[in-house]
Every structure is written in structure tokens, then in C-alpha cells.
């Protein structure tokens, strides 16, 4: 522990207890650059930087320890739920503590994935019974021993990113295979019990069987398929960059402009994440709806695109395009998906939009962000001229 690091963290002594400061110094010493609280982690979770993840299935009681409660509570906006789950990948190193009578697993270290996972529910048991901070101090000392043993380090995740994408696609294929097998069994059973056309059931089973054979082939050659998809996407000229992301494959479209009534509107800078399960659209420079120009505290409304709802971020692809994208996702036609999403991002249907495109031409900027007031929005939608006081 260096004098430089102690000096860097000395201001924390004013607001935080010594053990909490000790905890942060330990994390910095081992190279952790981020601490977050999550509902859970999945088999394909990984981080670019060395991360300390606190996982809990129950909301920590404030009465147990106000300092630790407040600290972990503000790490993330996620609210723990009893329905949250943790899928522990196989390549983990357990952080176990023996108190003399029993051994408990307090966490796991995933070297290839750049994170340590703390079971906060076990940790809060220590806090609950520790009136003199002796147990917490013991816990932190054990964590130091564990860290020195496993040698925490930040690793390059490029290879694991490809591997996890293969696992994600294989899992999606496996689910489709299992779903189709179950559907076939149910249909065979329903032939004798339901008033359903034997011809329809027979035809559907033929289709499902063929689909399963195709998915099964892909399931056995997952790595080759991922590389084929990635290579195809990298060759698309309209994409600025293609890279693996924790949620799928990220496509960087860059700035999107839409021409409407002889005027061009800058909508934002877009990333799109595609996977076998979903399509996510991210505007890196959206419009924030605020009360006034002097009160920039954002409301729940963020304008990402005329055809994306500002409150829930629900995407309206339209029924025809939505059905097409669903089929393309099932067939892993990511190149065709990328083209369809580009057409979507650059299109505007005035009669079927969540918000008018004109608001993207009437905003003010501050600290690199774009804002529009409620008054400005209402005037734009009613076709009234905006003045400086709005």
C-alpha cells in the first residue's frame, strides 16, 4: 500500500469509516477500477476492466450498517429482486472463508472475464453480527490473502468475447432445438385430442423438424458461424466499426440524419447491438426533455428517434419489418438485419411516429448534451415559433 495511494484517498476519511476506506484501498491496490452492484450475472458476463461485482438477492437493511448500506446502494440503479439469478461459469476460483466451524463461499474470481463476484447476502450476515467491526476486518484480511494468492489482474477479453458469443448463439440454438422438440411432442399428442387438421400438424412438424436440423448443424459449428457473421458485418461499408459486446455484436452506425420536407435533421449517433435474442438501439447523443433552460434535471423522457418511444424506449419497427427481423434473427442473417436497421434509422413516417422530427431541429446544447424544454416541444408540435425565453 503506497503513500501516494493513501494520500489520494485521504479525503474519504471525512465521510467514510476506516474499514470502508480500507476496503477501497485494497481494491485499488489489486487494480480494481470499478465497483458495481447487480441483480446477478449470466454465463456470458465479462468486463473490459477489472471489476468488483456485488451480487444480492435481498435488499440490504439500512439498520444493519448505514455506511455499508449507503455505499452498496448507490453503486447501481438496479433494485435487487428475489427473482434474480446467478449463473456461475465453470472457470472460477472460489473465495472461501472458514470461521472454525464451517466453510462458506463468499465469492468467485473469473480471471478470463475480468471480475470478482461477491455474495453480498453472506457478507451482510457478517455485518449483522459484527458489533465491533472485528468480523469485517477479518473478512477484508482474508480477501487480501485471496487476492495475493490468485493475483488479480486485468486481462485482454477479445478471445473470451468471441468464445462467449459462440456460447450465446449455441445456447439460443439449443433452446430452439428443445422448444421445437417439445412442440413436436405436444402436436403429436394433440392430433388425437384436439379438433385440429391433421394436415396442418403434419406440415408444421415437417417445418419444425427441418428447422431443428438446421439449428443443430449450426449448434455443432458455432465458432465458424460466429466468425462468418462477424466477417460479413465487417465488410459492410455503411458501418463505422464492428466489435464484440457483452450483450452481442455491436454495430457502430455513426451519425444518422433524416431528410424531411427538404430539410435535414441530425437524429443522433447510433450503436446497435444484435444477438439471437434481441436488437438494441443506442443513441449516444439523444435529446433530453427538461423543465426549463435553467433546470437541466432530466425527466424520464429521452428522445432517441422519432419511432422510439421517449418514456419506455420501446422500438416501433412496424409489423412487416418486425416480422422480417424476427425471421432474420432466427436464421442468424445479421448482415440483412444490419441493412434493415439502417433503413429504419434513416426513415420517418409522420403519421406513425412517437414524436415529431421537427424537435430534432429545435434544441439547445450545454456541456456536449442536447436539450429541449417542454414548452419548446409543445410549440414545435403545434407549429409555433420558438423564442429565447422558451
Oligomer: single chain
The proportion of residues forming helix, as a percent range, comes to: 25-40%
Give the count of helical stretches: 11
The succession of helices and strands, N to C, reads: HHEEHEEEHHHHHEEEEEEHHEEH
Determine Rg (CA atoms, Å): 26 Å
Summarize the main sheet.
Answer: 5 strands, mixed
Report low-confidence residues grouped into runs of 5 or more: 8-15, 76-84
Distance between the termini: 54 Å
Let me know the number of strands: 13
Q: What spatial order of strands do you see in the largest sheet? A: 1-2-5-4-3
Backbone structural class: alpha+beta
Instruction: Report the sheet-strand fraction.
Output: 15-25%
How many structural domains in the coordinates? 3
Shape: globular
Mean pLDDT: 80
How is this structure best described in words?
- The chain is α+β, with helices and mostly antiparallel strands.
- 40% of the residues lie in helices and 21% in strands.
- It contains eleven helices and 13 strands.
- The N and C termini lie far apart (54 Å).
Tell me the layout of helices and strands:
Blueprint: H1 3-8, H2 18-29, E1 34-38, E2 51-55, H3 66-73, E3 93-98, E4 103-110, E5 115-119, H4 120-129, H5 134-150, H6 158-190, H7 198-220, H8 222-234, E6 241-245, E7 248-260, E8 263-274, E9 279-283, E10 287-290, E11 298-303, H9 319-330, H10 334-345, E12 364-366, E13 369-373, H11 374-382
Helix pairs in contact: 2-5, 6-7, 6-8, 9-10
Amino acid at each position: 500500500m503506497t503513500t501516494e495511494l493513501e494520500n489520494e484517498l485521504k479525503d474519504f476519511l471525512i465521510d467514510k469509516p476506516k474499514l470502508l476506506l480500507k476496503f477501497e484501498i485494497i481494491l485499488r491496490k489489486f487494480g480494481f477500477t470499478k465497483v458495481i452492484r447487480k441483480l446477478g450475472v449470466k454465463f456470458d458476463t465479462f468486463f473490459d476492466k477489472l471489476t468488483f461485482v456485488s451480487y444480492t438477492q435481498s435488499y440490504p437493511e439500512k439498520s444493519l450498517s448505514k455506511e455499508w448500506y449507503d455505499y452498496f446502494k448507490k453503486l447501481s440503479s438496479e433494485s435487487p429482486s428475489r427473482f434474480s439469478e446467478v449463473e456461475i461459469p465453470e472457470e472460477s476460483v472460489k473465495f472461501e472463508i472458514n470461521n472454525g466451524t464451517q466453510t462458506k463461499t463468499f465469492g468467485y474470481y473469473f480471471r478470463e472475464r475480468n471480475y470478482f463476484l461477491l455474495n453480498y447476502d453472506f457478507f451482510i450476515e457478517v455485518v449483522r453480527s459484527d458489533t465491533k467491526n472485528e468480523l469485517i476486518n477479518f473478512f477484508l484480511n482474508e480477501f487480501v490473502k485471496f487476492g495475493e494468492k490468485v493475483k488479480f489482474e486485468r486481462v485482454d477479453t477479445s478471445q473470451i468475447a468471441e468464445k462467449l458469443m459462440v456460447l450465446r448463439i449455441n445456447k439460443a440454438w439449443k433452446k430452439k432445438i428443445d422448444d421445437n422438440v417439445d412442440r413436436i411432442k405436444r402436436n403429436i399428442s394433440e392430433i388425437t385430442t384436439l379438433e385440429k387438421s391433421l394436415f396442418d400438424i403434419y406440415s408444421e412438424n415437417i417445418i419444425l423438424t427441418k428447422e431443428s436440423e438446421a439449428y443443430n448443424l449450426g449448434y455443432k459449428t458455432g465458432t465458424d458461424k460466429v466468425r462468418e457473421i462477424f466477417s460479413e458485418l465487417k465488410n459492410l461499408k455503411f458501418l463505422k466499426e464492428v466489435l464484440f459486446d457483452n450483450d452481442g455484436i455491436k454495430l457502430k452506425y455513426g451519425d444518422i440524419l433524416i431528410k424531411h420536407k427538404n430539410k435535414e435533421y441530425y437524429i443522433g449517433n447510433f450503436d446497435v447491438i444484435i444477438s439471437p435474442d434481441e436488437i438494441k438501439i443506442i443513441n449516444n447523443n439523444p435529446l433530453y426533455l427538461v423543465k426549463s433552460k435553467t433546470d437541466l434535471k432530466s425527466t424520464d423522457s429521452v428522445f432517441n428517434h422519432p419511432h422510439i418511444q421517449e418514456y419506455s424506449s420501446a422500438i416501433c419497427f412496424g409489423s412487416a419489418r418486425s416480422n422480417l427481423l424476427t425471421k432474420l434473427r432466427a436464421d442468424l442473417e445479421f448482415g440483412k438485419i444490419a441493412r434493415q436497421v439502417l433503413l429504419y434509422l434513416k426513415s420517418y413516417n409522420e403519421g406513425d411516429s412517437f414524436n415529431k422530427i421537427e424537435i430534432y431541429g429545435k434544441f439547445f446544447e450545454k456541456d456536449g448534451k442536447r436539450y429541449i424544454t417542454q414548452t419548446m416541444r409543445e410549440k414545435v408540435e403545434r407549429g409555433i415559433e420558438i423564442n429565447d425565453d422558451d
